[in-house]
Amino acid sequence: MKSFRRFIDKIKPTFEKGGKLGMFHSTFDAFETFLFVPNKVTVKGSHIRDYIDMKRTMVIMIFALMPAMLFGMWNVGYEYTLSIGQSWTFWQNFWFGFLKVLPIIIVSYVVGLSIEFAFAQSRGHEVNEGFLVTGLLIPLIMPVDVPLWMVAVATAFAVVIGKEVFGGTGMNVFNPALLARAFIFFAYPAHISGDKVWVAGLSGGQGIIDGFSGATPLAKAAAYQIDKIPSVHDMFMGFIPGSIGETSTLAILIGAVILIITGIGSWKIMVSVFGGGMAAGLLFNIFAVNPYMQIPFWEHMVMGGFAFGAVFMATDPVSSSQTEKGKWIYGFLIGFMAILVRVFNPAYPEGMMLSILLMNAFAPLIDYYVVQANIRRRLKRAKQVANV
Amino acid sequence: MGKSSEKEPLFSAKNLKLITEPLDSKNPITVLVLGICSALAVTAKLKPAIVMAISVTVVTAFSNLIISMMRKSIPTRIRIIVQLVVIATLVILVDLILKAYVPDVSKQLSVFVGLIITNCIIMGRLEAFALGNRPWPSFLDGIGNGLGYGLILIIVAFFRELLGSGTLLGYQVIPADFFVKNGGFYENNGLMILPPMALITLGIIIWIQRSRNKKLLEE
Fold first, then answer.
1. Nearest C-alpha in B relative to A157
2. Phi, psi angle pair for B30, to nearest 5°
3. What's the domain range around B210?
């Protein structure tokens, strides 16, 4: 390690301003700070410099995503064995899924990071780490059979149109990972919806046993086949077809605990998203006009991408509401609308993506009114004091 | 149109500028941001976009010419109505001609030909240029703005048709073997056909134009 540090220090002057490779300064800086804790200290003013800079934040986020990702890999193999009617060992399942998921992760990182580096270079910025998380989120919300070039196109679209046009990390209005998914969802609907894409190899149709259906629980619910929905236990553990990382609520909750303990993800948003979802579910339970509305409200929490969206997507610190009160409103509406879309719009079996993107657009508005309300309240108090 | 009797030559540098400027630095769509609505609606395919571009060019050019010739006799208070009558007459003419000669394109464009009447570019040019200038420069200004509008329309439509349908002017450009249904890997981008993508394509064009021409950047 020490010799490596010495090597970095030795080549550092080449990349400084005026050095031979000075134009690649931001690229060098990105790698250096990625590998080592930056040794910059504040020289003036009273800023607090913390080790939790953006890179550490993002790395913790990656740790939080690990359970969902690893489980997703295993589940890819498991669902595949179900479809061909065999049973494999744990490691066989995992290895199969690993080989299926890894290319998607690599494509997403390579495309996204090269665009990110290119923009940082041409604008003379530092390379921002935002993509470390986005690059892992994108594969986790893709169906396993998605063609790789679509992932590449969607990632490029999300990074350029979703992030760079607004000024890069921290300036984006929408969650870039969800934008990538929305892009595929509207551009290539056949590859991200329906019953065939969620299990590896099912769209090819070779060696599939009779009667196997790759439909997700949500698709079954939307078709009113309520009795065919897997048990709550299976859905909670994640033994269901779905996007790679979204199936296991348990793995996601482990991630949620990591995020909440480290203070990286806002627990207020997570709680209020679940609250909003349950409120909507409960409301539909009361009326229960069609079979879908009769599904017990807690089952909505473990179906589809609800938990994944609540924990990893809605809490995105950039595109969510910034004010504390605003977070409650923002989260509640996400949860409420996700269930609303699920139950009432048969064209979109999963409403989580659309409702988060919608609320991303409204988050600044929510913040604005929360801040205004606070100003009004304090002005009123000031007036009262003045009158006394 | 040899109507003008100015001493300056017909295509003097100043007059030529009236045609070339709207193509780039004074483009009605990308710089003035007018006429966006129809730019989103008719650009899913290249052919309707070209027809639309020609129609708008004809209407802007001739309405500019006619209003400019009438400019001294129009009472200011009712000038908008007079302008509308002129534009509407021309649009109806264009609509009938389209229906007679290219009925299929006319069907695709549907209401958007009629809606040329409300295209902000035309009213904008009448108000900003034709009412204060002689007929010949007004005519050239109309052609220039129509072409500037058409240029953007055609660029947007080119990418939308190529990526959204794999064709150009109806001819298959991306080889049919590439498509998934024929055993290939390629798939048309369905988002390109939807209007939001027209807006995003337009945004990218504006982005490229402004990074090339720094004068257009707003402070």
1. B200
2. -80, -25
3. 24-216
